[in-house]
Amino acid sequence: MSPSWSRTTLALAGGLTALALLTACGGGGAAGSEGTVTLTYWGWTKGTRQAVDAFNATHRDTKVRFEEIPSGTAGGYAKISNAVKAGNAPDLVSVEYPTLPEFVSQGAVKDITPYVTPELKRKLLPQAVRLTTLGGRNWAVPFDAAPQVFYYRKDFFTRHRIEVPRTWDAFRSAAAAVKKADPRARIGTFFPDDPTTFEAMVWQAGAHWFATQGDSWKLDTTDPATRKVTDYWQGLLKDGLVHTHVSFSPGWTNSLKSGATVGYLGASWGAGVLKGTLPDQSGKWAAAPVPSWDGRPASGMLGGSTTAVTKSSRHTEAAVRFATWMSTSADAVRARVASGESSAYPAAAALRPVARRAFDTRYYGGQDVYALFDAAAASVDGKWGWGPATGTTNTTLKDEFGKVAGAGGGTGSLAAAVRAGSDATVRELRKRGLKVMGR
Amino acid sequence: MNAKARAVTVLLTPFFALFAVVMVLPVGYAVWLSLFTEQQSGLGFGGTHTVFSGLGNYAAALGDHAFRDGFLVLLGYCALYLPLLLAGALTLALLLDSALARARRVFQLALFLPHAVPGIIAALIWVYLYTPQLSPVVAALESGGAGVDFLSPAGALPSVVNIALWEWLGYNMVIFYAALQAVDRSVIEAATVDGAGAWRVATGIKIPLIRSSLVMVALFTVIGSLQLFTEPLILNQGSGSAVTSSWTPNMYAYTAAFARNDYGLAAASSVLLALVAALLSFAVTRLSGRSARPGRSPRPGRRLPAAPRTPLTHPVPSRTPLAHPDASPAPLAHPKGRP
Lengths: 439, 339
Prior knowledge:
The complex is a heterodimer of chains A (439) and B (339). Chain A has helices at residues 3-24, 48-58, 76-86, 100-105, 118-123, 126-131, 154-159, 168-181, 195-204, 224-238, 250-257, 270-277, 316-328, 330-338, 352-358, 369-378, 390-404, 414-431; strands at residues 37-43, 62-68, 92-96, 133-134, 137-138, 141-142, 144-145, 148-153, 189-190, 210-213, 216-219, 243-244, 263-267, 285-289, 305-309, 345-346, 435-436. Chain A is of the alpha/beta class.
């Protein structure tokens, strides 16, 4: 074996190792050239790409690179948290209201209080501003509000002379009437994988699960409003008046397509989802205010997204400027809603007429769904706030709902599920060193 | 250092460099992470600070019934899965071993095919087949009067076992079949001449001769079961089933890290799981080492074959399978160094 051979081997082996290591560490942020700031943005809401394109077309000093990631609970939030931990997160991310406190408590997003001016706040729905103000500081720019809406198959309801329910009592009777009219049809769906739908119902009923007093948290999930909602849904499940499907799963879609599900308790953004998922059923759907307990308008919020600046960002000011543009510029909302699948209801009051004009209402037979969203948004209870461990709360609820809502009846009860969710949250808060009152 | 030694060093360097970077470092980092926890103050909106917590995360994991229940699920899974897998794969291998040559090829391929499907795809397909109102299987069962809920608390475990069986039966069948092919045909012929039927040949000759393959498959299956993750995760996320997000210890670690953002707890539970796997591997290896040589000559060739124990076996000098209890070409070398 000659020395020259082994030198070649050495070089080859060294080169290969270096190559392997380099490939493993690819990627990295791109700082823009002089004068131009390049921001990266991760999100998943419908129409975001079109809105970003509109931004890039009209701005010279800032360029935004948008990357679509899986929706938050489908892995998007895990991706964001990991990227922040690893120090290679984008400048901006979409975060829904329930998850924002979790991100804030981990220190994953930046305090942007200096940039959230009173002028900006005045433009936005107060309830939304409140949900992004935690511990007296501002952490994100609210983009849309997501008041609850009940979507139903107008043709089915008309054909079988079923009245659109205004109260939850009437909803139950309508559910029974739907089942009677067509034994395989149901008025709606219980989503065992999506606790936020259930939480919106509880919120609407007047519960306040997470409250603070001084520097202590106070959890209350055994209040009369929560008990009322829990019993009500337990009853619907027990009597087989609603289907059980994973939200937005092939099962749910299939059921809607075949006409086995003729209603959807969703939120404002659901109008675009139905349109995108069921293009064949154009003209057959209508929207109504979500039923309430006393017949007076009341609503919780189901999702709704904000734009936050991550800890890793080195361009906070430019990032907030972009986020503000996304939330308050007519161009942004027009581009997003005109994409066809978005029915975002802007948190900025001035932009609602823009969104209304951009939204093609033929799918809903020309119904002015945005007027409906307006009324619903105004009735959102602004006192609800989310706790700092929603990841734990919702994971536990999801686990327990899965047991309760098995197709064969399941085991346990929704009440036990809610209790388990609350217990797990309290344990988590204590583990983090936070104070929790009264337990 | 001579040229040969240098070449060996140089050629091994890439492996050890990568091994250090992708194996040793992450394991060390996980152990390091497991010793810390993140604390918050006030209402928790001031960010986190990391504090050393010693074995606090280990105590938290062991104290969490969700984590402990995960091991019970694994126990139930093994208790159901292992016998079914071994019996099924062995039966198929024996059938194949005694069937016609042409049928062999076809069946071998057909049975092995599911293993070529990635676990995640298999799980997605099975979720579809398990989901009521979507699955033709559930619909057919219901119309036949037998309503089965594959995703209920009682049905979840068998459902996962079913997916695993579908994936692994063919693979293990091939291992057994290969071992059977290596059995000396003269022994089988001798047994047949002695008047043994197919059943007697299978139970008296073939199975004892491939025992080390059986032990190896059992060992690998148990260790593999500890890692149970993909299939239940898909069932958890895609079906709204009784499979919770911390159904197995691996899922517990995953959820702790990615849903609850508790990296210390995730690291601690992963380390605990690794320890259990290591202990179990050690115990099973020791036990199987003992049982693989039940009193017969462990050193083929040194002694004359032991007296025939069954009337079926001819005392063929030194070619007797009994003198070669580990004659099958199992990929895993039989445990060494035990007299």
